[in-house]
């Protein structure tokens, strides 16, 4: 099987089994490793528009320290905007394969943008049950419309409208996270690239899978972004690793799921934790999600904020480096 074979095409042929390269080891298989015991905790949920904004800051900071992930409701993105985002993304993945391939990621590309299947290198040659589409959505100067689908015709306008709202949500989150560290409201956004932060949309498509007990849609990882703002569909699958166990994320209609990424962990000098998470798949339904990764520009240098270093003992476990170098090491499984 060549690397360009898409999971969606494999799924359409599968009957009651899946190819060997998709079968995870026993310490990864969802049927074995998902926690189903008593008192399963819920990922924290925060009302972003609550009148007590000091409490909002406290709840976001607590969730970011203890979980690295939280959900937000009353975030200001109209439900109809989210619904349209989901509709046009689903439309794209239901197109004939040759139409989707028109947006394929070039084989020699240094960017992640485009339609594809494989992302990170797996030392054991294993694959995830997932096809995806990447393209930047903000700022306008970094957009390459080559990778934005022209079918459905409304795709571009819908994504532009959604992005307008996401930028506003991101500013609120960065401000709350900064205040939660006792810093000025613009500290973390400034450390991650300020107005030059790049917003990379990824649409994940996880086809129905005949053996969801054996495989994963996305394997366990932390995001290399500063923050990730994610819209899921109604099919469950997102799991977070907490207290040495894998816990299912509860689906809340129209909520956004926020991931603390590696760059905010670095900037906060470890006070906020980049969340280890993975995705399972369904036997009956296609699961989809729409994460937007907030990333520093490639040449932007990220390191712990000086305000969070002790002048008397400025040592830190986090290295200061260009984002592009961090990303290269992360995707190629090299030490940072």
Commentary on this structure:
- One of its GO terms (molecular function) is L-ascorbic acid binding.
- Residues 196-296 form the Fe2OG dioxygenase domain.
- Belongs to the iron/ascorbate-dependent oxidoreductase family.
- This is Fe2OG dioxygenase domain-containing protein.
- The protein is globular, with a radius of gyration of 19 Å.
- It has helices spanning 7-13, 30-33, 53-66, 79-93, 97-101, 155-180, 187-192, 262-267, 323-331, and strands at 45-47, 69-73, 114-116, 131-138, 198-206, 218-221, 227-232, 238-242, 245-248, 256-260, 277-279, 287-295, 301-302, 321-322.
- It has a single domain (7-331), classed as Sandwich (Jelly Rolls), CATH 2.60.120.330.
- A hairpin with a 2-residue loop joins strand 8 (238-242) and strand 9 (245-248).
- The chain has an eight-stranded mixed beta sheet. Strands 6-11-8-9 form a four-stranded antiparallel beta sheet, with no helix packed on it.
- The mean pLDDT is 93.
- Helices cover 27% and strands 20% of the residues.
- It has nine helices and 14 strands.
- Helix 3 (53-66) crosses helix 6 and helix 4 packs across helix 6 (155-180).
- The chain has 336 residues and is α+β, with helices and mostly antiparallel strands.
């Amino acid at each position: 099987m060549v690397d360009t074979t898409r999971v969606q095409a494999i799924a359409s042929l599968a009957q009651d089994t899946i190819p060997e390269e998709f079968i995870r080891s026993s310490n990864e298989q969802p049927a074995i490793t998902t926690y189903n015991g008593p008192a399963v905790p819920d990922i924290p949920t925060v009302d972003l528009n609550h009148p007590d904004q000091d409490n909002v800051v406290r709840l976001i900071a607590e969730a970011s320290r203890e979980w690295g992930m939280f959900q937000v409701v009353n975030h200001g993105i109209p439900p109809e905007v989210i619904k349209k985002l989901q509709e046009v993304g689903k439309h794209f993945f239901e197109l004939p394969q040759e139409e989707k391939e028109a947006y394929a990621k070039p084989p020699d590309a240094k960017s992640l943008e485009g339609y594809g299947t494989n992302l990170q290198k797996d030392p054991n040659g294993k694959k995830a049950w997932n096809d995806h589409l990447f393209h930047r959505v903000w700022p306008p100067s970094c957009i390459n419309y080559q990778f934005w689908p022209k079918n459905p015709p409304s795709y571009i306008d819908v994504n532009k409208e959604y992005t307008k709202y996401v930028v506003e949500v991101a500013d609120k989150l960065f401000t709350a996270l900064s205040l939660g560290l006792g810093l000025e409201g613009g500290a973390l956004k400034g450390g991650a690239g300020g107005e030059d932060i790049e917003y990379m949309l990824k649409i994940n498509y996880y086809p129905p899978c005949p053996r969801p007990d054996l495989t994963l849609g996305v394997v366990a990882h932390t995001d290399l972004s500063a923050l990730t703002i994610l819209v899921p569909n109604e099919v469950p699958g997102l799991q977070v690793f907490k207290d040495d166990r894998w816990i299912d994320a509860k689906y809340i209609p129209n909520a956004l799921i926020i991931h603390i990424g590696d760059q905010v962990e670095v900037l906060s000098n470890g006070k906020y934790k980049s969340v280890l998470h993975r995705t399972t798949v369904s036997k009956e339904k296609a699961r989809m999600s729409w994460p937007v990764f907030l990333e520093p520009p490639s040449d932007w240098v990220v390191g712990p904020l000086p305000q969070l270093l002790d002048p008397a003992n400025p040592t830190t476990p986090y290295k200061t480096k260009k984002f592009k170098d961090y990303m290269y090491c992360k995707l190629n499984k090299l030490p940072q």
